Predict the 3D structure of the following.
Amino acid sequence: MHPLGDARHRVYVWDTAEGDAMRKARRAIAFVGYDEQLRLKALHQKSSVENFLIEHFDGADFLYREPTDYEAQQVAQTLAAWQLTPIAKKKIATLSLGEMRLAMIARAALYERKIYLLYEIFNSLSPDKAALVTAWLNALPQTAAVVITSHDKARMQDVSLNRLWHLEGGRLQQSETLHFSEQKNTRETFRQKSTEAAQPQGQRLIHCAHADFFHDFIQIFHDLSFSVHAGDRILLTGANGSGKTTLLKIMHGDFYPMWEPEDSGRGILHFENALEHTVKSALWSKVQFIAATHFDYYPPRMTVRDVIASRYSGSIYDFADTLPPAVEPCLRALAVADFLAQPFKTLSDGEKTRVLFARAFALPAAVYLIDEGFLALSERYFAVAAAYLNGIAPAATVVIAANERLEALRQALQFPLQERSMNQISFTKDSGMQMPIIS
């Protein structure tokens, strides 16, 4: 692809195609990324995973005709190859981040392309699914151009690449070396504030007993029981679609169980001690949630400064126009100060994640819920976020849902993680899900 024209006008020609022909030529380009994932999920929300593939067989967003026997066979083979057959009839709107990401990758693999543009391709994928993607990447024809952005250097070492580009400070460099500066004074200040705001360690904060949870009239958990205490450090792992994100949302107060008589001991979800509240905003000031699924929580009108300021007011509708000087070191450490006036929705995934970490660390919290929050961070900011977590008070609670960068997390964090797997959950069509106590 190359530009033609003078300084005022550019015409892009790709494979001798331009205009309408160029739009048709885009079928030879596969694009997998978070923004595209949101667009396709909204566009195809009522389609099943199977139809999501069938509708793309000619390279367009929709295929308004019945598939041929050959196309149906190819789609069936693709579903099987990507281990998507069990959810083939599942609606796109109900997919988890990992399931939707895998469906997009399967869509890209339907037929051979000339260009593959893959933004954080391994995000939200469990290790077994990431291994499938790695094998697929290494099997792509050498005649195809493959461009991958990733912060997961360990995973990328398994992918066959012949060039490495590094973006930093607005410049494109061909370098593998990243230089990270420590923010010791900033971290020590946060450690001191967090310790001063600490709650008694060991107190029960969240208690859920024999509860059924529904979303859009679909049961998502049956007979769920767990408890979380001050000072818990929990690593929650499990396959894509196993319920990790939903469990964290329950801890965040986004879902309440189906009502049962209080004296029955069933259907209970209590927020206790430091998390006791009468209005939801009071809970959310004490529980910080860092997740890609939380990006859309903030209205489009909000700037990065607004998002940070809402941490202090406890409301995304009413907040100060300025930020207190005390938050500036945190903003500098995560390089958020550079785009405070920019609309939050326009940022990249990595930038949005840094903003949410900065918002979480602006004030000490009782609970930090992190849902694959480290995936979109470069090594520099991964180290900064880990350093802040190392500085929280012993009684602060951390729950991390993750399948990727686990070894890096264990090495970076100065506290042990109690590992809990969603594989401990049993699920059948009749009995639903059951989970042992987390304590």
